[in-house]
Fold each of these.
Amino acid sequence: MSKAVDELKKIIDDSDNIVFFGGAGVSTESGIPDFRSEKGIYSAVSEYGYNPETILSHSFFMRNKEIFFKYYKKNLLYPDAKPNNAHYGLAKLENMGKLKAVITQNIDDLHQKAGSKNVLELHGTLYRNYCMKCGKTFDLDYVTKDDGITLCDSCGGVVRPDVVLYEEGLDQGVLMSAVKYISNADVLIVGGTSLAVYPAAGLINYFKGRKLVLINKSVTPYDSKADLIVNENIGEVFAQICDL
Ligand SMILES: [Zn+2]
């Protein structure tokens, strides 16, 4: 165990009010690409001639549903992805009564699959879908039956994923809840995010607890504020800390 991981273990042992804030890097070890990294799909112009950030925006979705659905079903869905040790470690810490909440920017459901109960999904989830006309909800299986526009089996309306597209605001209830957990936390562990995306990244500023820990392989704008920085694979870090 490295010195940094050992120090993190002591911080976790000493606290029963930990909050975890995570980004794409938490899921990359499960085979889900970091959409914003240089190698991620956001940097490539898609086969449709549009920038992926354009396709995944509200206005594009409203105007070009056919391309939106084809693109997102091909590039964003990883139904076979399995949680990794970061997800399992966090679920274990919650089960032990030490971790109060997982706040995630990911939309892949892997925290829930690992057993976490209190997961705040800032950007929603691809595993929940709803009819824009009648509000009926659908699971992922319903959506993946074909690669085109998904329609409601009750009213024929368009069924969209319950995720926050570009140009759309975050769910205020989820956001306020995240602020509450971070403001009240004793230890905040931030992992797998470059903290570049606002307003989610600004949430860190609400923390006024004892220890701010960053687990990330690259430099973040918050490094100077952190009490501990761990530059290691997040799955391996949690495997060591939680004896997985
Ligand atoms: Zn409907």
Note: The chain has a mean pLDDT of 92.
Amino acid sequence: MFSYWEIKNWFSGVDYTIVGSGIVGLHAALRLRERFPNSKILVLERGSLPQGASTKNAGFACFGSLSEINDDLKTHTEEEVLELINKRWAGLQLLRKRLGDAVIDFKPFGGYELFLENDTAGYEECLRRMPFVNEVLKPLFKTDVFAKEVDRFDFKGIHEYLIFNPFEGQIDTGNMMQALLKEAYANNILILNSQTVTAHHEKADGVEVALGEFTFTTKKLLFATNGFASKLTNDAVRPARAQVLITEPIPNLDIKGTFHIDRGYYYFRNINDRILFGGARNLDFEGETTAEFGETDIIQQQLEKMLREVILPTTDFTIAHRWSGIMGMGNHKKPIVEQLSQNTYCGVRLGGMGVAIGSMIGAELADLV
Ligand SMILES: Cc1cc2nc3c(=O)[nH]c(=O)nc-3n(C[C@H](O)[C@H](O)[C@H](O)COP(=O)(O)OP(=O)(O)OC[C@H]3O[C@@H](n4cnc5c(N)ncnc54)[C@H](O)[C@@H]3O)c2cc1C
């Protein structure tokens, strides 16, 4: 049970309560602080660290590979796709400006897409559609984004050309999240870990929030719970687990950049002489539609196989570590930033590019208030 002191200092007179301390929750808190310098802002996080995607991701500072954007153009209008990419791009600039490139270790190495030998149809379609996609993106980037490039990394089992995107970069995810947390503390934002919001009810003077048995009142309640927001959104957000592995340091590793395969279903990058490699969710969509963390043999074995056969075919490596994170997906790629009831709001469904879009969505969520 909380003490008198704890209740007095942390849970009384709360103006804004944010659920979730991921990228979105922390950006929302910082934006609220800009708008309301004297308000009491509380962030509740159920993990000992942020426990969703923000500290688990691959750190791509990206806005979509050619095959992904081409795919999106089949299910979204050109305007929708451009708007989404515009937001990701603007979000990346906001993140870099807020925290600084040195702090987040931003590296503008560029991004590449590889096409597996058995995906000739996808490869040819992308090469054919590249000029069109470049035209769609021109209002934003003023120049071609995607270009063909010969593989200089000695990958195996792929088609001749890679697609290069010079606007893509990479960051150190751990540095970014630590910097955001520091910034939040410095701005007098109260962050409480190991606190799970179990229920909430609108009342005349705000929202009653339950942490199990304990309840308190906040004027406004903002959910930034992404992959854990199914109930809140009537299943418009579904959890999507993503598994990752990282190698031990590899001497003379020559691979630099962020790399995409198969419409973003596989992704790898260099980090501190290691390769971080994730994906293969498409091998088991059903099993990976879960909010439970964990690694499975089918996916981990496929990641290792691709690493051995395609990415590092002539290099010895050992796997140092494996983990997973939970993303929030849905039928539409657009995040949901909405007022749910009188004093309750949400900013969720960040998909696979929340590093880029998270800062913008956090700000938009805060601006709903
Ligand atoms: C393996 C992996 C790789 C990825 N790679 C990239 C990448 O390279 N580039 C990119 O742009 N994006 C990437 N993403 C996606 C990106 O990480 C996410 O889109 C982004 O982190 C979402 O941020 P968020 O704040 O919305 O959600 P989260 O970071 O998931 O934060 C939600 C928080 O809410 C908390 N929470 C949930 N329910 C409750 C509750 N009831 N009470 C209290 N707290 C609660 C959770 O514990 C969690 O910390 C990747 C994701 C994964 C999993």
Note: The chain is about 35% helix and 25% strand.
